[in-house]
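Question:
Write out your own:
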Amino acid sequence: MLYPSPIGTLSLVADKQYLYGIWVQDQTHFEKGLGDETIEEVTSHPVLEQVISYLDTYFEGSVQDLSDLPLAPIGTDFEKRVWAYLQTIPYGQTVTYGQIAKDLQVASAQAIGRAVGRNPWSILVPCHRVLGSGNRLTGYASGVEKKAWLLQHEGVAFQENKKKEKKMLEFIEYPKCSTCKKAKNELDKLGLEYQDVHIVEETPSEDVILKWLETSGFEVKQFFNTSGIKYRELGLRDKVGSLSKQEAAKLLASDGMLLKRPILVENGAVKQIGYRKPYENLGLR
């Protein structure tokens, strides 16, 4: 069933007992796990009529009890833990990825970020209430502008990412990485302003990475963290060379730990991957 909302058309999918998903059309992970043959379009449905009532109330700006939301028993055990946590975040409040990891006693913020991103019940299981460090607005499966709308609708204060000016630098890093620390130290010594992006909590989208692959002049393999554990676990050493740019972008966007770090980006264009050469010779200002 389709539901017209202020942030776009929502696709609602349910069976006779459970709600399987609420997706903004064409978002990342749209109707993931559902085959076309399993979906039948309907104009009325007991479960979906209840969900529509909840959505109507939400968009009217009212707080409501969603404890009886008939969510389907899907997802891994870990994803279920994270999604259950999301349901406890009150209307008009936010938490950070780091706080969720701490509360759930999970060492990997990367794993938290992936589980949040795969939440199939947009809005009513409020993954939009999860922000980056410093309450910064971060990625959202259907686009950060929709996430911003939802938070503003709830009256939430958040830190918007800096708008691109004449020269906008993004330093994409993993904070615990010693090489990233050295590179950041040079940027600070050069007196350059930059936006710090957590490579795991704020992994660049597939579209962004594909643009890098197509325009940067760097080879596909240079974007991969070839010394990383994930790279070895997936056996990518013998596979990367045969990946298309589209396939590589999709794979890199699925896990920030696959990306070589740090990545220095100026106005959307990749200036350097890794830190084998100092930044002072890149003509940055």
About this structure: The mean pLDDT is 89.
